[in-house]
Amino acid sequence: NCGRPHQLQPETNANERSFKGDRIVVGKFVAALQMPRRWDVTVFKYPGNAKVNFIKRLVGMPRELVKIWHGNVYTTPLLFELPLSTQAPLEQGKLPEDVRRAFADHQRELGADAAVGFAEFSTTTYEAFAGWVRRINDGPRSYILAEHEGRLHVFADDFRILRKPSRKLLAMLQVVHDAAHTAPALQTSGWPLRWQGSGWLTSDNGATYAFEDDGANRSDRAQHPESEPSDDNRSAQARWLRYRHFEAQPFHWELAEQGQAIPATDLPQVGDLIMDSYAYNQGEPQGGPHHWVSDLVVECRVAAPSTQGAVWLELVRAGDRYRCRVDLQTGAVTLSTTNPNGFDAPTAGAAGAGVRAPTAQVTVGPEFTLRMSNVDDELRVWLNQRELAFDRPTTYQPGTSDAPTYRRATSKRPEDPGDTAPVAIGAEQVSLRVSQLRVLRDIYYVAADGRGRDTDFERGDLAPGDPPSYWLNPGMFAQRRAIYYVLGPDQFFALGDNSPFSSDARRWGGRPTDRPDCPHYVRSELLIGKALLIYWPHAWRPFWPNFQRWMKLVR
Hints:
Blueprint: E1 23-28, E2 41-46, E3 49-60, E4 64-69, E5 72-83, H1 87-91, H2 97-105, E6 115-118, H3 123-129, E7 133-138, E8 141-148, E9 151-156, E10 160-161, H4 166-172, E11 174-178, H5 184-188, E12 195-196, E13 200-201, E14 209-211, H6 215-223, H7 233-236, E15 238-243, H8 250-257, E16 296-303, E17 310-317, E18 320-327, E19 332-337, E20 359-361, E21 367-374, E22 379-383, E23 386-387, E24 423-428, E25 432-441, H9 468-471, H10 474-478, E26 483-487, E27 491-495, E28 522-523, E29 527-536, E30 552-553
Antiparallel strand pairs: 1-29, 2-3, 2-29, 3-27, 4-5, 4-26, 5-9, 5-10, 6-7, 7-8, 8-9, 11-25, 12-15, 13-14, 14-25, 15-24, 16-21, 16-25, 17-18, 17-24, 18-19, 19-20, 21-22, 22-23, 27-28, 29-30
């Protein structure tokens, strides 16, 4: 949450040594009667050593081509298989008649101009396939042919993002910032609060913020509408409390804990990018490499005694703003975005995609909790812990340049913080009090493999504290790599939630203890069951049950 360094001393503190782990209840699968579902946390025998049990989340399902790219997982289903004898002519760029017949038999007849070419993947992608791969281009359609275990597997080049069910999503979120647990020592030394906004005041070190609406605030906002980017007139009337990810570095903490003031030259002026950091991965130097995470969640408790005006939530991704407006008088909840693609149409090919904003209707009281997520290319909203149902799709297609943005202020235009200030709460003509502020992020699945690649970047790496002048280099994010894995019948793809360091299916076969032929999948015969319940969390030393995690459901 705050990044405070903590020096572990396992030699003198028994509770800072490794533990054997929690004891869990596993619901065993019954062959042919019960099989795992996508996103289930599952216990299975490790394909590289059947004496070892692993616990991971099943993400890829049988007969799919899995793609990991930009932190998300995509799949496309297997269409059909071809015998390996068809590989030789395809290798020469030819389309033999038996291949054409196979496509026609599956209602995908190839045109006369269809051509075989190399798949436009990087060298690392070829390694991820660990075999032969080609692409057939047929006008607007294309197909991927990948060799897998002695057969050619044919897939439509039509990947769809895997969206998590809300119950799984909420369980998988990682806390980025909790305003109830700020660091007084940092603030005493002059470190700025992460939440700031004109007209917003706090009296408890940033745990609670209040905005008092009056005529002066409204007139000031009307005179200076350019001080906050907006996508419509109503958002231009809002006063924004904006989150900047000011992440203190070890030398800042050293000064703060010594009671010294942090020099003004060392105070941040621009927020850091939110990255895929895990406190338990950090070491000296800080565990990396890191990746920018654009899938974020904001939640808060709102007290609004008036029934006039509106409350706004905002999440920024790649410079595009995704907003939720709650009308306190009518109860209308409306979503909007500056993404030129808008929201998806209700039906494929329907006209007017993104023209009318998705809307839901709620009953709003004087105090309520509010949560908004922008995860897996989809917006979701919860009011008082209940997810809202909108009248139109809230899914969308991201912009062509899915990279963080920032624009400095000039004499002609104001600063646009972009992804350095990716979360905000707005008050539109209403007095508000907000508390229980939290910023969370989705899991970022790294395009790692078992061949020593632990980063998405072909050029450079990200680290906490890197300034915009470093990561605004357009080539850095444009060349993030993707990896692909073929799954045949009865083959499951397992991923860990601690993606930067998880020994999951991406890396199998690359460890010294693995069998040379260790596959990147789990067969059903190795599946033991679904993890249901932590019935005995690891105890502290000397023995004392860890009651905070007692009888916790596994989701």
